[in-house]
Every structure is written in C-alpha cells, then in structure tokens.
C-alpha cells in the first residue's frame, strides 16, 4: 500500500511487510520495511523541522490540531474499517477508538495555548523568578498494536501542541491506521518534517541508533514492561527524557456492599473491551465471599451470550485476538489454571480457524498462585477469586509488580474511596469499568510506567521548564 512518511513525502522501496487480518488470516496489504538508514532520515527530517515548529505560534499549532480533529470525524468510518481489518476489534469499538483518538487532538489544541509560566519575587527579595515552558525537542514515539490510532494520537497531539516534532514507529501488525493518520495530518497542513512515520519488521535495528543520536530529545513508548525496560536502559547513556506506558495487571474488586448490577456491567466492560487486549483490562476479579457465587453466575451468563466473530460483521461483539501467538499464550494460561484446580464456568477454548479466536471465559476456584493471576492475560478470560475481609482484598490487589489501574465497586462511600486510595495504581475506576478520558492523566506506578498521557500532565511530558533568575 504505502511507504514511509518522511519530511512530508511518501518514500520507500516496494512494500514488503505483510499486514494480516486477524479475523481471516488473509494478507490485506503490504507496507514498506524500514532499515536503520530510513530511521535516520526520519530523525533528520524531524530535527530539521524542530526550530521552526517550536517558533510557530501556539494558536497556529492549535488550529492544525483542531483541523485533524475535524478530519478524523469526517473520515471516521474509513479509519474504523481499517482498525477492524488490521487489528480485529468490532466496528463499533473501532468507531469508539476513532472518537477517543480525535478527542486527544481537540484536548491538546485547547491545552497547547496555555503552556505554563510564572513571574514572582524570590523570598529573599534579591531576584525575580521567571519560569517558562519550552518544547523538549524531537521525539521518538513507539506504539503497540492494540489501539492503533489512539496510542499514536495521544503522543502526536501533545507533542505537536507543545512544539515538538516527532517520528512515529507503529507496531508492525497495525501500520495501516498510522499511515492513514499521516495522510490526515498532511491534509490538515502540518508542515513537512513535523510528523514522520516509519514502518519496520526490525524495530530494534531502526530505533536503537535513534536513541543514541544526540538530535533525539525524548522517547515516548507504549507497550510491554519487558520492552520498556530495554528501552529505558538504551535511553540511560544519553539521559533521554522518557514517558513509559507499560503493562498492567488490573484487579477488579467487588466489596461486600457493592451493587451487583453495576459490578457485573462494569466487569463486562472492563474485561471484554478490545477482547481483553488492553493494558486497562480487568485481569483478576476479587469478589467478597457473600456475593461471589451470584457474581460468577451473572458474569458467566453475560460472557457466554456475547457474539464472537469477524469484527467487520454486523452484530459481532468480540473480535479475534491479534495473532496465533496471542491465542497460544491465553490457552496456556487457562490450561495451567485448570490443571491446578480452576473450574471453567464458560468458554475455556480457542475456536477453530481461520482467524485467531478465543472463547469468552470465566474461571472460578483459581488457586492464588496460578500464573494467570500474576501475568497480563491479554485475552477474554476472567479469573475469579473470593475474599472475606477488605484488608485481605487490598493485600491481594496490591500483590503485583504492575500498577496501572484497579477497579473497585462498593456503595459505602467512605470504605470504597479508602480502598481506591490504598490501591497501588496510577488510576482507579470507582464503580466504573472504563476511565480512559483524554482530559484525565492516564498512566501507571510501579512497573507500569513513568509519566502520564492526557490531561494537563500529558502536555507537560513534552515541555521543559526553564527558570530565568533576574537580579533585582
Ligand atoms: P511490545 O511487544 O512491547 O511492543 C510495543 C512496540 O515496541 C511495538 O511497536 C514493537 O515493535 C516495539 N518494540 C519492541 N522491541 C523494541 C525494541 N527493542 N526497540 C524499539 N521498539 C521495540 O507490546 P505489544 O505486544 O505491541 O503491546 C502490548 C503491551 O502494551 C501490553 O503489555 C500492554 O499492557 C501494553 N500497553 C500499555 C498501555 C498503557 O498505556 N500503559 C496501552 C496499551 C498497551 P515490534 O513488534 O516490531 O517488536
């Protein structure tokens, strides 16, 4: 289909990198496959465009972001179809992702005209303290396949708004959506070199030299904790600024006083959005003993009724997983849990091909040490455990090196909020199965990452604070 987008031009050799539809296994397109030299050219373009872009007025940058917001809505159906074709999620969810991604452009258009600064007298009375915000400089953005549009949007929009130029390296499974976004940015009038995109089958070969290049000033990464760790190590020699949105292991806690209707509805959302292939996906259900059987029965009924299939078919509620490796990984986790004593309430198996499908699954009686409770499942499987005391639930919820998000359901306001405050996560859904919002700071603690995307904080990730000390 397309080459790389560098310096406002489409370039590249004959496209050779295949893109597969995970619902059918069919190759739907081929894209260019960058080597290290192509990555260098992209950074060269970003570095050359940096000064002028930083000096472009915040209002002009905001106007461009608003134009992209408008175009995304205008082309929503086409882009949603692309997301579904290369990633698999049902069309309705893909349309939701387009709206969510578009909101990052609107939000950061609004925020970018309000970069922080101040002017005050030092307590000593000997100087004035003046602070200003300046763009960090050229950015490398590396994104995963699970939200092909939104993960790029929530990096590109704040980077551009702050006055940074950017090179995007999307996941090889889902490059088409990123390339479609490049077309829109180009059409909106984003100047050449400000945004660049390279697709590759060898991410390390392309990105490692860029991380060592003094022209690069920031890395923003969304993906697994394992790769995040490697990239942090590669960023250390140059003390590169980094933002890291890494893996999760979200507990979903149902306290004794929870409203079961709300909890079950929230559980379906938190578990099944994106077929469970989300960093925010509820990974472990911890339910008070008094509600556990009813909760399990109702969740089982809801998941068993979901229609699994090709996301492009009307009525599909759960799409395929991304590839054969993903299915094998989910299958292994379920099989191990079952061998260790877990009971399958629904699902439990892969579906025959073509495509990479796994049945929505509920497991109860899962042993505390089962690997499924300590690993990011990234699939439509809900393991349930029970607890007697709130202290026991909190200890279990926090027994993980991840700290992205947790969910807590309860009607006793004080106890529910106290629980939320004590969860070791960057975000908590309180009686809410989805919390993602471009206006809110998204990110984790512990091994789930560094920094925040969205909210006021999302712009700060691309700004440096400069202090001018003015002698009186
Ligand atoms: P991944 O394997 O870590 O890959 C993410 C991106 O990093 C891909 O573009 C990948 O390209 C690239 N990459 C891998 N090794 C690299 C290297 N040495 N140098 C440069 N780039 C490299 O993650 P994934 O499987 O695509 O995505 C799933 C993970 O993302 C899950 O853990 C999920 O929780 C996490 N995630 C987190 C958030 C969040 O906001 N916290 C949001 C969404 C997803 P290649 O595939 O070509 O290696």
A few lines on this structure:
The chain has 472 residues and is α/β, with parallel strands linked by helices.
Strand content: 15-25%
SS summary, helix count:
14
Would you identify the CATH architecture of the largest domain? 3-Layer(aba) Sandwich
What global shape is seen?
globular
Terminal-residue CA separation: 62 Å
Radius of gyration: 23 Å
Strands, count: 22
The level of helicity is 25-40%
**Mean pLDDT level:** 97
Small molecules in complex: NADP nicotinamide-adenine-dinucleotide phosphate
* Major sheet characteristics: 7 strands, mixed
Structural class: alpha/beta
CATH superfamily of the largest domain: Aldehyde Dehydrogenase, Chain A, domain 1
> In terms of per-residue confidence, which ranges show pLDDT below 50 for 5 or more consecutive residues?
none
Order of strands across the widest beta sheet?
Answer: 14-17-18-13-12-19-20
What's the CATH class label of the largest domain? Alpha Beta
CATH topology of the largest domain: Aldehyde Dehydrogenase, Chain A, domain 1
Number of domains: 2
What topology does this entry show?
Layout: E1 4-6, E2 9-11, E3 17-20, E4 27-31, H1 36-55, H2 58-74, H3 76-87, H4 91-111, E5 118-121, E6 127-135, E7 139-142, H5 150-162, E8 166-169, H6 175-188, E9 195-197, H7 203-211, E10 218-222, H8 225-235, E11 241-245, E12 250-254, H9 260-272, E13 282-288, H10 289-304, H11 324-339, E14 343-346, E15 350-351, E16 357-358, E17 361-364, E18 381-387, H12 390-398, E19 405-409, H13 413-422, E20 427-430, E21 449-450, H14 455-460, E22 463-471
Parallel strand pairs: 7-8, 7-10, 8-9, 10-11, 12-13, 12-19, 13-18, 17-18, 19-20
Antiparallel strand pairs: 1-2, 3-4, 5-6, 6-22, 11-21, 14-17, 15-16
Helix pairs in contact: 1-7, 2-4, 2-5, 2-6, 3-4, 3-6, 4-5, 9-10
């Amino acid at each position: 289909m397309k080459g790389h987008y560098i310096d406002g031009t489409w370039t590249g050799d004959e496209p050779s990198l295949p893109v597969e539809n995970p619902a059918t296994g069919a190759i739907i397109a081929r894209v260019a496959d960058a080597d290290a030299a192509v990555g260098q050219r992209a950074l060269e373009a970003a570095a050359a465009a940096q000064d002028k872009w930083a000096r472009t007025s915040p209002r002009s940058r905001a106007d461009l972001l608003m134009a992209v917001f408008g175009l995304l809505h205008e082309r929503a159906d086409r882009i949603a179809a692309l997301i579904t074709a290369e990633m698999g999620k049902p069309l309705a969810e893909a349309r939701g992702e387009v709206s969510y991604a578009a909101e990052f452009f609107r939000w950061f258009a609004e925020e970018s005209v309000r970069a922080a600064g101040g002017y005050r007298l030092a307590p000593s009375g000997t100087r004035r303290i003046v602070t200003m915000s300046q763009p960090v400089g050229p950015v490398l953005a590396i994104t995963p396949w699970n939200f092909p549009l939104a993960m790029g949007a929530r990096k590109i929009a704040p980077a551009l708004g702050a006055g940074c130029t950017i090179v995007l390296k999307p996941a090889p499974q889902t490059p088409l959506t990123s390339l479609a976004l490049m077309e829109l940015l180009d059409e909106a009038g984003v100047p050449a070199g400000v945004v660049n995109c390279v697709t590759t089958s060898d991410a390390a070969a392309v990105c490692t030299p860029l991380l060592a290049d003094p022209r690069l000033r920031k890395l923003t990464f969304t993906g697994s904790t394992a790769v995040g760790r490697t990239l942090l190590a590669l960023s250390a020699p140059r003390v590169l600024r980094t933002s890291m949105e890494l893996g999760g292991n979200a507990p979903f806690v149902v306290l004794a006083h929870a409203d079961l209707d709300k909890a079950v509805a929230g559980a379906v959302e938190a578990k099944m959005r994106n077929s469970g292939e989300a960093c925010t996906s509820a990974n472990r259900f911890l339910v008070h003993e008094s509600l556990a059987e009813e909760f399990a029965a109702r969740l089982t009924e809801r998941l068993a009724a979901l229609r699994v299939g090709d996301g492009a078919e009307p009525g599909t509620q759960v799409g395929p997983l991304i590839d054969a490796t993903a299915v094998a990984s989910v299958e292994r986790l379920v099989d191990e849990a079952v061998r260790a004593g877990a009971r399958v309430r629904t699902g439990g198996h892969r579906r025959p091909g073509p495509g990479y499908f796994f049945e929505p699954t509920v497991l109860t009686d899962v042993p505390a040490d089962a690997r499924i409770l300590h690993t990011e499942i990234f699939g439509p499987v809900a393991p349930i455990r029970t607890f007697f005391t709130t202290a026991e639930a909190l200890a279990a919820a926090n027994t993980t090196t991840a700290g992205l998000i947790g969910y807590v359901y309860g009607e006793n306001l004080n106890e529910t909020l106290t629980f939320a405050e004590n969860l070791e996560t960057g975000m908590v859904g309180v009686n809410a199965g989805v919390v993602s919002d471009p206006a809110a700071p998204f990110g984790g603690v512990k091994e789930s990452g560094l920094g925040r995307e969205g909210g006021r904080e999302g712009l700060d990730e691309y700004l440096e604070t400069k202090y001018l000390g003015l002698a009186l």
